[in-house]
Amino acid sequence: MGGYRLYGAKGSGAMIVEIAFARAKVPVECVDLAWDDIGWNSRALAPLNPLGQVPTLVMPDGSVMTESAAIVLHLHDIAPAAQLVPPPDHPQRSAFQRWLVFLVSAVYSTFTYGDDPKRWLGGDEAAAKVLRESTDSHREMLWRHLETQVGSPWFLGDAWSALDIYVWQMQFWRPGRNWFVERCPKLRAIGAAMSDDPHCKAVAKRNGF
Question: Does the model's pTM come out above 0.85?
């Protein structure tokens, strides 16, 4: 039986999982892969996750877990005191479940298709430009919708949760923190508050932010 080993890339969504491990006080070994070794043709991840996705987590028993939300839920099971997830009787438990799935399925997927759109379009540069612009525009609409739903000072109001990690980390990506200041100030306030968290500071520094 070994420990946890997390495969990611600097600035990727693996940062969310890295912070969750830190908050849960569960040791994890972070393995940083080059961005050109991520994806379907990844040599490093082929034996573990043929899709080449990060984060990829090797569990202590040698099994593999993918998907950041699944890993967060796993960490909550083994370290509930970290409060990554509201307890079952918490009034915001269902809201947490709703918005966790929304972030990973609706918002996150826009990067899947928009970051390297040529891969989905046979290398068609013109079509790729349209897909990039449309996914960026759709993401901004999703964030504006989320702005009308989010609480203060944290996503769920008074209750901190792993949702706040997602909001902080994803503001490093398009459209960027300045856009949030102008268009989604409540979400930006959550991101700014998380920036003061020592775990976020350490992970941001390690990832070059």
Answer: yes
